[in-house]
Structures
1.
Amino acid sequence: MSTEKKYDVIIVGELNVDLILNQLPEMPVPGREIFAGQMTLTLGSSAAILASNLSSFGMKVAMIGKIGTDLFGDVVIAHLERAGVHTGMIIRDALLNTGASIGLQFNGDRGMVTYAGAMKHLSLNDIPLNSLQLARHLHFSSYFFQPGMQPGLKSLFSTAKKLGLSTSFDMQTDPEHRWEIDYHNILRHVDIFFPNENEIQQITRKKDTEEAITAISHLVPILALKLGEKGSLTVHGGRRIMRPAFQVTEVVDAIGAGDSFNAGFLYQYLKNAPVNICQDYGNMAGAISTTACGGTAAFQELKSLDQYAKEKFGYPVACVT
Ligand SMILES: Nc1ncnc2c1ncn2[C@@H]1O[C@H](COP(=O)(O)OP(=O)(O)OP(=O)(O)O)[C@@H](O)[C@H]1O
Ligand SMILES: [Mg+2]
């Protein structure tokens, strides 16, 4: 990437491990024990999966978040560093536990239990705002998992914009189903908003996706709406683009598909590619992510996303290099 900045992207967000239990005979019920056929301990969290995958694509990425000084914290750091992510700005607090998500995969669906831990304690005061100018782009993930960041998020984004960065935001789900977020004001400082259908319906209190799109799309330059197996929809400058998903014959799991979409999209966005190409790369990275366990495994051996796309999908995506 040709730039004089130290980083292409600084990502602020939650950090945790995922312990994924596959091949369950049924969902566990109180008072009984069952065997899982397979287990993976890997990097979890929307922000970290994005960081790892963007770095695997060749972007220079730095991560800011909060973890403990425990073994799960070591797993997070080791995984990010193996992917080439700069971890020097991650805060390690000896009094807090690193968060963990336990994923139970059964019958093509999954249940998750998350202990948020240290991520809940990250606040704007922890973030060295002058370091933002080291990057071209700022991304923030997982609003509802990080109550400590909520009061300062608008300020984080507006500071980044004042320093000349572009910005993106993936709000993610609200496990407490309250969906309280001042999105009108936050999105004023965001260039790309990366929700899924349920998320925009919930925050706008609309039952219909079309109504939710109408309520959101004029607030932000690019709305990139993730639609799972249906692909994605973007609204940009009054123009809508619907692009179908790439066909995956054997889906292992959809963990991190949304974050991988963000990574593919930003990879092209930061090369100044047009929105339709960003979107195709988002769809492609989301699809690739479903071919391996967790959100990062499919990209670990990746030499080039463009090459991989040709080999895996026979898809000659026009791209900006
Ligand atoms: N089964 C699938 N087959 C092909 N592509 C998929 C599949 N699932 C997801 N994708 C691709 O990945 C993108 C993002 O996935 P999804 O819509 O599930 O995001 P999300 O709801 O934000 O997920 P997450 O739980 O990771 O936050 C989709 O827009 C699509 O392009
Ligand atoms: Mg998502």
2.
Amino acid sequence: MDAPLEKTEELTSASTDSKERYLGSVRFFKHMILSVNALLILLPIVFLIIALYKNSILQAAYACLKTEYEDYVLQTAEQQKEQFAMLQNEDRREVSFVSDKDETQPLPEEDELRIPFYVDLNAWNYLLVNEMHPLSQDFELKLVDTRNGKQVDGRIKYSLEKMLDAAKEYGMELIICSAYRGYEKQQELLNESIEKYMGKGLNYESAFFQAKRQLERVGCSEHHTGLAVDIVGEHYQSLDAGQANTAEARWLAEHAHEYGFILRYPKDKEKITRLEFESWHFRYVGTEAAGFMKEHNLCFEEFLELAQKQQEMGYKQEIPEDSAYRVDGQETNGH
Ligand SMILES: [Zn+2]
């Protein structure tokens, strides 16, 4: 009875023994070594494959960038060549070689009117005063007396008297009937004018607008600057339409620019100046500007707009060394 039992025990212990024997056997260690070897061989291969794969992606990307870069270089070289050829052969004005920003602002056309001298838009002689441009609160001026006791800016006295003297040589006596005007005087004149129109039956509003066709509001009159004068002939001193027909008015219209004065409110510019034609109102701007405006039939607003446009477009107005640009009144500055 004992024998079979022992056999079963033997069998069970034999299978456990064989497991234990395998784990501790030489075969097991051989298998282990083989597996480790296999891993040692396989892993580098896997890494190599990954590396190659990754490398190819990098290379492809690099190749892509390189091609694009080369294309770009070639393209810009081609463009540069084209631009250079244009510069050499074509009209320079068509090629913008300053910067991209300037390309949006074409340079003036050949036939476009250009001011050939320097215009400093902040200079005293280019001071614009009208309904849209009231005089600034801190405006200062140095007034001097004219021969007949009116007051003007000291810097225009010399030119003004030169003009009066020149007219005298033609046998004409020019009279300055109005020059510098303070704010109170302007208000007084405006009120008088309004009353005159109200006396003709207009209501205040209509009378005010009628008056404004001949007189600027307080602060908007050129007479506040001391740079403007009303001039009439001795034989006809009314400031009305008849004044334009006098020999004196005609002489002034023809020659004032030679002394740096402009007819400030011309007949054909009423829509721009917003003031009725005044054959007697002259404004000092300097001989070059006055001559240019006379030559090209521009009023002051048009001239300043043109100067500003040219400066914005980058059209340089250099002062040539031998320029005739002189503000005549400078000699009497501060007197
Ligand atoms: Zn005036």
